[in-house]
């Protein structure tokens, strides 16, 4: 029997944007088992809910993650609105969809860049982030923040986008789409990238389903789940095709995210076309009394916020289940049997967001 | 032919202007909505304390007795909550980020607002 050795991977590692620790059990160069451990950046957000008024907690909920921040805020608001039976104006719902999809664009472009960096394609990394900057500019012009938008509030949104600006955004998207098409062609067609990603970190459809994979990690293995299809917010009024891939390897997950960029662009176009005029918020009085599980689709997968109020201004419980947390068991399965040199690529392929995971 | 796809992007970026700004030489990108830092018009603040209550990061401390408005710039998360809720609209969001510091300190601003005595003010204005 070959001697087993343990190689620590992380929490500081050049490829990791955030700290996660993996103990890799190796037999020669082959990974036979992985022991993940998290807990390096726990900030106690769920406890903080008891100390802040439910209207102010939106800002904190939004800061759970630095990338999908808007969707965290929107999901929290959605939960409170359900507890308090607030009807959000239609324009606000459309605006939330627009900002959510812009978040998805910027998150996926960020990930494509980091992923390119993980397999050593620096030029592609720079190009992905160059396009992402254009998305962030739109975010800043419409909300005032590049990554922390802060434009969501209970009962609607805090800022409106004028119809002229919406038209301008739609025209801008044509240019962005052309650039993204050039970028994704490289990701999906380039021989060296294909060679690096094909058959690396395989996850079968059954494993993805049983281990609870969500988002592009599940869709890259052929499991067709996307919370947007449940039609929350204004998603029910928009048409889009679910992107799935049957490869189940790193290439499959990369292909899903690359294709989803176009889905997001299409959704923004549809939303801009269909957005009705009207108010953007409703007056909220009282305090939430009750509990609710609310779900939304983040760039990384399904996000669950559990909220419980007792009729006072302070919630008694908030539980956030983020997609990366559920994607860690599938990650462990993917890593079992891989080569040590493939570990960085596989870890990045689930789009880990550790700040999210630890809250 | 993937090789030529990347070449197309490379030639395009080679012929276009740089995507980045030469930051200290050129000013950073700003928009009218950009959230930089909070400023106060101390002559209009009525010391009601709404900004302090609505601040999610407890960066603002207001003292009615001492008539001061105090902000810890490192605690402030620039969420715009105080600006939105101020009843007399004496708080503003500046688009410029607050300047870097080397030590933690609070910014103390004396409130110069004096509650007007209405009839007298009117007399003065008419005279």
Q: Which helices and strands occur, and which strands form pairs?
A:
The complex is a heterodimer of chains A (359) and B (127).
Chain A: E1 4-9, E2 21-27, E3 30-37, H1 45-48, H2 57-62, H3 69-83, H4 90-118, H5 122-143, E4 152-153, E5 156-157, H6 163-189, H7 191-197, H8 205-210, H9 215-219, H10 250-274, E6 289-298, E7 301-310, E8 315-321, H11 323-335, H12 343-349, H13 354-358
Antiparallel strand pairs in A: 1-2, 2-3, 4-5, 6-7, 7-8
Helix pairs in contact in A: 3-4, 4-5, 4-10, 4-12, 5-6, 6-10
Chain B: H1 2-15, E1 37-40, H2 50-54, E2 60-63, E3 68-71, H3 81-85, E4 91-94, E5 107-110, H4 118-126
Task: Walk me through the structure.
The complex is a heterodimer of chains A (359) and B (127). With 359 residues, chain A is of the alpha+beta class. Chain A has one domain: Cytochrome-c3 Hydrogenase, chain B (Orthogonal Bundle), CATH 1.10.645. Chain A is built from 13 helices and 8 strands. The N and C termini of chain A lie far apart (42 Å). Chain B is an alpha+beta fold and 127 residues long. Chain A binds chain B through residues 52-53, 56-57, 59-60, 63, 123-124, 127, 130, 133, 137, 140-145, 148, 150, 158-159, 182-183, 185-186, 189-191, and chain B through 2-3, 5-6, 8-10, 13, 19, 29, 31, 33-35, 54-56, 77-81, 84, 93.
CATH topology of chain A: Cytochrome-c3 Hydrogenase, chain B
**In whole angstroms, how far apart are the ends of chain B?**
85 Å
Strand % of chain A is: 5-15%
| Mean pLDDT across every amino acid position of chain A | 88
Helical segment count of chain B: 4
Instruction: Give the proportion of residues in helices of chain B.
Output: 25-40%
**What spatial order of strands do you see in the largest sheet of chain B?**
2-3-5
The top-level CATH class of chain A is Mainly Alpha
By CATH, the topology of the domain at 29-115 in chain B is Alpha-Beta Plaits
Contiguous uncertain segments of 5+ residues of chain B: none
Q: How would you name the oligomeric state of the polypeptide chains in this document?
A: heterodimer
CATH superfamily of chain A: Cytochrome-c3 Hydrogenase, chain B
Radius of gyration of chain A: 20 Å
CATH class of the domain at 29-115 in chain B: Alpha Beta
Structural class of chain A: alpha+beta
Write out the strand line-up for the largest beta sheet of chain A, numbering strands in chain order. Answer: 1-2-3
